[in-house]
Each structure stands twice: as structure tokens, then as C-alpha cells.
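cron nightly-structures :: item 1 of 1
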Amino acid sequence: MVEQGIHWLVDNVEGPLWDATIVILLGVGLFFTITTGFVQIRLFPHSLREMWFGREVQGDSLTPFQAFATGLASRVGVGNISGVATAIALGGPGAVFWMWLTALIGMSSAFAESSLAQLFKIKETDGSFRGGPAYYITQGIGSRWLAAAFAIALIFTFGFAFNAVQSNSIVEATRNAWQWDEHYVGMGLVLLTSLIIFGGIKRIGKFSARIVPVMALVYLLIAVSILLIHYDRIPSVISLIIRSAFDFSAMAGGVFGAMLSKAMLLGIKRGLFSNEAGMGSAPNVAATADVKHPASQGLIQMLGVFVDTMVVCTCTAIIILLSDNYGGEQLQSISLTQNALQHHMGEFGLHFLAFILLLFAFSSIIGNYAYAESNIRFIKNNPVVVNLFRAMVLFFVYFGAVNSGGIVWAFADTVMAVMAMINLVSLIILSPIVWLLLKDYHRQAKQGIVPVLDIMLHPRLLKLRLDQRLWNRR
């Protein structure tokens, strides 16, 4: 029953929806890049400072670094390994260029959405914070129905579809390396996931803050070692990526098929899946951080997009393109990346990637859950509803483990596009507030003081905050 519904959704909705999503995704990113004066370049040093010098917090709220690590837990995962491989296999080397462009443009959208999430967050009785697009749509735009539509789309995307993708990739990697049975792997993932998600957001933040930097560092050390060995070939690989990006001989399908190459379509799709810029996911964790100015968390999450795509995805792409086989549909997804590492490192590479993917994908499951739980609580903050949702998450973790990769990835693409469309339109509507927050932050930073938002100085924000208090009492 569930699988039939997913098949219908993919067959009838995915193509036309993605045609529109690509136009809006790039358009909104360019809009914020220009109107913020290229914030991703101007204030990039500030994003590094904000992440590392976040203060300690009390209660159940997250530090800026914990919020960054939890956001990165969902970004750094299957998208960097399996998604990059799929994009290259089906779209060619040029797909990597479009992943880069999506990330660079999207960094400004990531700044906007996470800054808004901080401004419109609400405080729980235990001292923790909760927020995200559903909250800034309700309080900033005043549309409860649109906020509910976004929350439902995010729950399906992160709570169900993306977690199915993560478990599916774990199964493929462990099957290639150790011939593990997918049913046993699925049951093991369900057990481990349940132990963490029933512990609350603070446990998720602590888990991510510990495991994400370690696993990312190990993976990057291996990748950099391979790049250093083949340093003389890297310029030719970069040149191949750029040349192939503008090869329109292989066209994509859909309404805009005459304008989009497969490289462009796959690069944008997999780029968005990997870094989530503008999708509306990272703001859910950005809102849980305890910071003095909303823009500071916007800068931190902007940095997450850069690390994800420009660093981790690029390393994966170059490793694949330096291998002996990276073309064709016969070898794609996790199998392609494992083949590349096996080419460079022998049998160790095959086993290493299976192990590291267990860490990457499992941390992504935890990060995905954190996003979805915040939106479940937005719709109905009831323990029974939350626990029922947790049971559904565990079901889809198992569903992804035992079903084909094709249907799992297509399901994820479809619901991801729905969620992104709602969030991107909302960001345009709320753009004047983003500009106000950025201006206030930059004014204080130029004076050499720690930026702190004083709502009393901004009449429009003061009115929004009063409206927010009224909304919170409902």
C-alpha cells in the first residue's frame, strides 16, 4: 500500500515539480546574493568566528557549535558520497560544477532562512528553543495553513523519505563490503535510532557534536591523501568538470528539457539534497541555538553549506573522477564511490567506505529526525503524537533498507521539491526582515562589539515580536 502510493507520487508529480523548483531555487539564491551584497563572501570570516566562539548555554538549548554540528549531521552524509556518485554517473563530470554553483548561490538563502528561524523561535518551559520555517511563516507572514503545509512536507521529507535514503545506502555499502543481509541491517538501524530519538534534542545535539567532526575529519584525511598522491592530475580533473558542465548534448526531460542538460539537472538535484540550502531544513536546528543575534546563526549555517559541498562533495567527486571507471548506469550511487576508493586503496577502500558510511548515514538519520520532530510539535505538541511519529520514522528506516534504491531516491526528490518550493516563496516574502537583521548585525560588527539584537530599536521587529507573543499564547 505504502509502496504503491509512493510509485504514483513519483510517476505523476516529480518531473513537472522539479522543472519549477530549479527555476525558483536558483532565482531566490541569486536574489539574496545580490540584495545582501554577496553576504556569503563579505561575512565569511564572521561565520568562522561565530561558530568557534559560541558561548555556553543553560537549560536544554544548544550551543552555536552544537546547532552547527546537528545541521551538518544531516548535510554531511549520503549526499556527499552516494549523491555525488549518482550525479556523476548519470549527468557526467559537469554535474559537479552545478553542485558548486547551487551551493555558492544557496549560501545566501541558508543565511536568510536560519536568521529568520532565530528571530521567530519560541522558548520551551525547560529553557530550550524551537523554531523553523513553520514558525516564521506563521508569525512573519501570518499564514497558518501555509506553515502547516510546510511542516507536513518537511515531516515526509526528513522524517520519512530522507531517512529511507540513508538506510538504503547503508544497506548497499555493507552488502558490497561484507554481504550483510538488508533485513538484519534494517532491524539494527531501527534499534540504534530508537535509542537516540527517544532521548530528546539535547542528546541529538551532543551525539552530533561528537561524531560529526571526527567522521568528517577521517574521511577528509583519506580523501586529501588520495588527492596529494595524484596532485598532478587535479588541474585536468577540474578542467574536465568545467568543460563538461556546458555540454548540452545530453538533455534532461520535462518542460524545460530543451534548456537543461542532464549534468545541470542532476547537479542541482543532488546539490540541494546534499547541502539543503534554501530547503527549509537547517533552520529547524538553527532555531534551537542560544545566540545573541539572529544573523550570527545565519552565518553559522551558511558555513555548513560551504563545508558540505565545496569541501566534502568536491573531495568525493575528484576521487571518483581519478578512478578508472565512473561512467554509465551500471555502476552508480554508493557502489561507484566504493569502486573508486577500491581503485585507489585496494580492498581497504571498499571496507573503509562501508564503515564511514555507517557513521555518515546514521548521523544523518539523527539530524533528519531532529528537523522533523520540531515540525511535529508545531502541528501538535502532544507526547502521544510525537511517539507515534517516532514509530513512523523507525518504519521508514526499515522501509528504505529493504526496498530498491531507485524508488527510495525518487520519493525523496519528490517530497524535497515540495518542501523547498514552500520555503523559498516564504523567504522572498520575508526578505525585508532578512535585510534588516543583516544591516543591524553588520553595523555592530563594524564597531568592534559583539552584535546583540535590540528589538526596541526596530519598530517593525517590535511589532512582530508582540504578534509572536500573542500567537504563543494560543
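cron nightly-structures :: done
The radius of gyration is 21 Å.
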